[in-house]
Amino acid sequence: MRNIALSNEKKAGKKVNITVSEISGRLVGEGAQRYISEASCVIRKYGKWKAPKWGKLPKDDRDQLLRITNNSFTYDGGEHVKLALIKQLNSQYRSRRYNFHMLFKKCGSKEEALARRPEYVEESDWIYLCDYYCSPEFKALSERNKLNRSKQQTAHTAGTKSFLRHKDDRISKCVK
């Protein structure tokens, strides 16, 4: 579901301020979750999927996604802020691709997957993704990542919020 509070602020012509930690380069503060939600909506609606990963998307496509997402936000800061916003878009892009892969895996064959294209994904993009998921390159990458994940000793248990956002929330509560 779209972020209703952000939608109402957009209609009123207000922009949400976002803060980026200079230490970690991560979004923190009250506007962080709104930015994350907006980035997810923008990636879903305008994302292009004919690239194996975010870094391989044409720069113009990445810049357009950043411009669309940033329309509702204000921020102070330099290059570290822009890098944090790009990093967040990259994360949302990876998450969406992961969801596409999970949908692909639920299908018994490539043909069945092609027939179950999500309505918000262009047909040519879905064909590219299905071909990519069947490629030896992707299968090797998938196996390598599966092996690496099995070696991890501890799991992140803070939910979808980063540790830094949890810390920032606790500090904000103490100050108020």
Automatic annotation (TrEMBL):
Composition bias type Polar residues, residue spans: 150-160
Stretch list, region Disordered: 149-171
Origin superkingdom: Eukaryota
Pfam families listed in its UniProt record: Transposase_24
Listed PANTHER family: DUF4216 DOMAIN-CONTAINING PROTEIN, OS10G0409366 PROTEIN-RELATED
Protein known as: Uncharacterized protein
Organism: Coffea arabica
Gene: LOC140006524
